[in-house]
Amino acid sequence: MSFKVADDSLLVGEVSEVHGARLKVRIYTDANEAHTFFRGEVVRGVSVGGYIKIPCGYDNVIGIIEGDYQQESRVIRETADSRVAPGQTIERFVDVSVFGVISKDRFDRGISTLPLVKSKAYLLTADELGSINSPALLDEPIFRVGTLAGHDGTSVYLPANALFASHIGVFGNTGSGKSNTLCKVYSNCFEGIDYGVGLDNVKSKFVFIDFNGEYVDDGILTDSKRVFELNTRTAGDKVPVPEDFYSDVDIWSILTRATDKTQKPFLSRCISAAKQVRAKNRPDAYLKKMLENLLAGYCGDAPSFGEQRSDLARLVAFAIPSSSYGDALENTTAALDCLETRDRGAVVHNTNKGDGDGYLNSPADVPTVFEDCLALRLDFTSLANDVPRLLAFLAYYRYLEQWRRGSIAREHISSWIGRYSSELQGSRRLFEVHGNGMIEETESPVVVFSLLKVNQDQKRVIPLVIAKYLYEEQKKRGQSDLESSVHLIIDEAHNILSYSSQRESESWRDYRLETFEEIVKEGRKFGMYLTVCSQRPADISPTILSQMHNYFIHRLVNDEDLKAIAKSVSFIDGASMSMIPVLPQGCCIVSGTAATHPARVQVEKLERVKQPRSYDRELATTWRI
Q: Tell me, what's the pLDDT at 137?
């Protein structure tokens, strides 16, 4: 057992009061310098945010200074002049909160014994500061975060496992340095993995959801990343999804805002019908026969044709393989324009035929009456293989058939079916079904999904789909493979994790939050970890915010954001909270299970080529001012 007597040159005061883990320390008058020299090193003096050690038996109790003030002396000190008035002597005191102990040259968080009144208080050496803020140096793989603010040259290391096997929150206002911190944390992580077993040899998957295209350039994060640049306007990359994506009743009922009593059951029947069609030996022939039977149903029911003409054109358009559904719909509409009802609406007639021909008097007349429509380039084979088109086709088929039979009320389905068709068509630009699932098909261990060129509606959908299927796949994989993990990193997370958004239905908001809240509450058990980065923590669900294990908190000035942090983050003290609005750029409060205590850390700026595309523009240089 080693015990070192503290050097008196670092002696700064003595304990005057003990109230549990909070101490009051009187500072000697000769210890009021901002810095002092100790064995050739500059040691920070007594100030708020600084550290104090207090010998207690064979151990040193460590505390952080949270308050600094002066106070009049309560007693008359013995002096040569007995006329010294009471209260004339002013003394300096600091409030100290103790949080750990250095024992046997090792720092341990937590207190088993407390100092006594009159115990001496000392400043810490650089080595002691390092051991307190970087306990992982002793026996665990380490990860460098930055330098301790106010203590130049003292690096802060965190245990790699405690940091990355956790949910992480990075918060800060625009320009505070949060994007640099997020990028640096994971860039250093990837460099460390490459130096070890190699990034391509690990069973971990790092998935970044990038709303603003900040991480797509070469050199950012890692050179071996796979970037998916999604686009809702032109052809772009597609998100690989499992085969059951289009048959997920829950997610499609939410996306289309389907009502529980009528529209959701209708959706479920459409999905079941699609499965039955694809299971047929000749699905193309089956679909062709379905269309012929639907057209034959207008025999003797011409009024229904008049009411359903526009929806029938939409149905047939899905059977035409075309890059533009609008062009296909224009062709089918034109092909049906030659049809009209005759004999006071009793029969359908093709006006291109003579008066004695072209009447739909029996099912055998379908090829003649609907000749122009059936002559279009209908391809039922491609329709059967294109799941989104097939689902839209079957939805309109069931809608028209049941409406004509009177088994559904038109107004209950008409508004929903348009939304369903639109969502299915939009999904074809963004999602692609793969049998191996998302984890396998994304190939690279580091994947970036850029949503810069995606419209606002799909920006709400894509992160949910990615998170949902990553979690489902990792739940299965993580139970048997304990070396596997998935790390989902969401920059600008308030776009998807907001609990107060008014731009969506309540059911959609609940489903979205329930998905992410389950990940943050249960994901750790299966090796699924969430990292969120946001400038508006107040907009994020309190459940998600409070379930983070580690936090990097940059400057925040909005009262609501500060209240959200104070309410949700249990790893932060009052002194650290008070510093958040005045933190300089790049400086953050690091707190959580990986840290011994809340510490102010200055995160170094990345090289320009490695920085995310969120840096400030040099307008003065551009303008040559």
A: 52
